[in-house]
Specification:
- The structure is a homodimer.
- With about 425 residues, the first copy, chain A, is α/β, with parallel strands linked by helices.
- Among the domains of chain A are: about 140 residues, FAD/NAD(P)-binding domain; about 150 residues, 3-Layer(bba) Sandwich (FAD/NAD(P)-binding domain).
- Chain A has eleven helices and 24 strands.
- In chain A, the strands form eight sheets. Chain A has a five-stranded parallel β-sheet.
- In chain A, α1 runs parallel beside α9 and α10 runs antiparallel to α11.
Chain lengths: ~425, ~425
């Protein structure tokens, strides 16, 4: 049980993603009371969600209960709940269930959701991959489609190929990684495990509006990624803008691509934090903050991670990646400790870019460290090490490492389960 | 892709549980065509489902895709689908999606579902644990209830204890194992990971209609199980018959126990195979078969596992446990091979009882091998070895073994994720 000491500085952190968890961990044992609020009970290693969606890893491999990660500190509380609003005058966060959580300092780190650029009616037919439930839903759709093709009545190769068309929209790291893993899963499984379908029946397509993949990487690596994807059998369409998505097709300009499986990885929209804080949002819904990471006009409210558009001390806008969110969380923690101790605020935030990594399938990746660009197998090894290293908690690292090694040796995908929904073709 | 040779004997197996999988594996490479039909895409190690429900293991740890397990044989097909009916004259299984699967020999191994003894309106408030989705639902309910208590407004110890009452109905192996694991999960987590609740707030109750636990074990072991459960803090109620279950309470006779979390482990009802086969069912819905395991009046239809009430060559009714189903599956395979080769049927089926095991919590179990009865830590070690040994496929064995060892060392439960539903308190 906790002791709440009335005169301790009370910090409320909303959101247990990379930013919020980094702030909470940096505040542990520092003489402040911390309450972290999230809609889910687990911290999620989002960069590996696509591996859950393509049956390479299990949900528990990439997620850990927030309570377990933070339990060492008796002055840290965890609340499961959704934020209704923030009362800035009373300095209270109001939750949907009616609870009121008072703060002296507030960190808003609620992340972002998929954006359909004003076409929200596409959402049901083209789910994004942002949560564990999203990922298991995509996994179910892919596996069920293959099972349906096996028992189904698509007699010609052409009609099977149409039925087994999988489309990923968006050529950033998420889309590239998803398309590569999806091609490996579907083509390999079709070849090895099914009788009536083969890899020739399967079509995986990556649709990208820009003129090269991975726009946040140097152009040469975008080209390498494209080559690697094509080797895996992915059909890459550049300069292709999606004009409509229906339950049965994706439209690219005038062209109609029949498909029932579309994954959206094309854009994000920040959570409604700007509305809670009564400040204007940028077009992606983010709160614009300066190098002190504070909401306009407030000394006590910090906005970090994908919820914010941070212009750092060097005048650059920090990218929407996990390392940026972590660094901002640590900075916010330092600034809050300075506040609580009546000291001077730390030097303005400066984002340190340690590099950029994306993986394509089982043995290929691209890496950009500024001074070094790598692609192919060495980049893939780097990617494996980096991701295992950054996974929270020894157990996950160990299980994920063992899993990857096993998949690498055997090509098997241990998490290939259809769960949720009704789980059965017969009633779908 | 498969070759279907028209003159090969065609075997259809409905159900990929222990019985169906044992039959399929025994028929592999024996010159017959096998089609296995299941509503789900995975074989499930049901005896460990309670560990998924109590967050000790992940779904993928105890389930493997049927295709992966059977893929070595090109004459074995896997169909995802639900059976609508069996046309015994045409010798065709009809699936709900309209597909028709012809057979020369048929094995019905569709298992059993929960039975509420005519009180099917209790089902929504007292789910059983028969599928992965059942197990993750129970896990979600337990974890959400604890999270709600942490942020909730039950101010007194009494009201928290009422809110945090978990009831298991049924004192067979499933109920005993579930209650033990549930007590460990909830009491330990309450003590270690929560601030506003402690183990004194948690009440786990096992309600059993009979006068001793584990009726299928010798009386002394039932007593040991009861002692072990009580040491874990489980309140065991014997001779207690549930008279009603509502969303907010379990009624035992006149007594009303307020609770929102009830798990049903009290009875099973066989799947509707008897109706498909136009034969009478016993009160548990099972098809009565003799020591040849064949449906009454049919030479070509075998009924095995929990779908059947098998009277074996010794005149005993085989119990509804995994080893019995496996032995029956192997027997059915032998009998089918004899049929397909025009040979004499094998000697009548005789169930071989290798013993009975049940585990209670982290370090205790009871085991009965007839000639040897063990309880406590040695029985628990035996239980671990036996279950790891029988898990299908090396990968699962390895992951489950590592997981248990880790849990044993740390008391941590790696799979403590709330997924599905809305996952958030705020909107529930």
């Amino acid at each position: 049980m906790t002791t709440e000491t009335p005169d301790r500085h009370r910090v409320v952190i909303v959101g247990a993603g990379f930013g919020g968890m980094a702030a909470a961990q940096a505040l542990m044992g520092q003489g402040v009371d911390v309450t972290i609020v999230d809609q889910r009970n687990h911290h999620l290693f989002q960069p590996l969600l696509y591996q859950v969606a393509t049956a390479g890893l299990s949900p528990a491999d990439i997620a850990g209960p927030i309570r377990t990660i933070l339990k060492r500190d008796r002055h840290t509380r965890v609340f499961l709940g959704a934020v209704e609003d923030v009362d800035l005058d009373a300095k209270v966060v109001r939750l949907v269930n009616g609870a009121r959580v008072p703060f002296d300092s507030l960190v808003v780190a609620t992340g972002a959701a998929q954006s359909y650029f004003g076409n929200d009616h596409w959402r049901p037919f083209a789910p994004g991959v942002k949560t564990l439930d999203d990922a298991t839903r995509v996994r179910r759709t892919i596996l069920l489609t293959m099972e349906e093709a096996e028992t189904g009545r698509q007699q010609s190769l052409e009609s099977r190929r149409e039925f087994l068309t999988f489309v990923v929209v968006g050529g950033g790291p998420t889309g590239v990684e998803m398309a590569g893993a999806m091609a490996e899963l579907t083509r390999h499984a079709a070849e090895m495990d099914f009788h009536y379908i083969s890899s020739r029946c399967v079509r995986v397509m990556l649709v990208h509006a820009g003129d090269r993949l991975l726009p946040s990487f140097p152009p040469s690596l975008g080209g390498k990624a494209m080559q690697s994807l094509e080797k895996l059998g992915v059909e890459v369409r550049l300069n292709a803008r999606v004009t409509d998505i229906t339950p049965f097709a994706v439209h690219i300009g005038e062209e109609e691509i029949p498909t029932t499986t579309v994954v959206w990885a094309a854009g994000v929209m920040a959570s409604p934090a700007a509305a809670w804080l009564r400040v204007p949002a940028d077009p992606q819904g983010r709160v614009r903050v300066g190098a002190d990471l504070r909401a306009p006009g407030r000394d006590d409210v910090f906005v970090i991670g994908d919820t914010a558009a941070v212009t750092d001390a060097a005048g650059k806008v920090a990218p929407g990646v996990a390392p940026a969110a972590k660094q901002q969380g640590q900075y916010a923690a330092r600034a809050i400790l300075a506040r609580s101790r009546g000291r001077r605020a730390p030097a303005p935030f400066r984002y340190r870019d340690y590099g950029n990594l994306a993986t394509i399938g089982r043995q290929r990746a691209v890496a950009d460290f500024g001074w070094l660009r790598v692609s192919g197998f060495p980049a893939w090894l780097l990617w494996c090490l980096a991701h295992i290293y950054f996974l929270v908690g020894f157990r996950n690292r160990f299980v994920v490492g063992a899993n990857w090694f096993w998949n690498y040796l055997t090509f098997e995908r241990g998490a290939r389960l259809i769960t949720g929904g009704d789980g059965a073709l017969g009633t779908s």
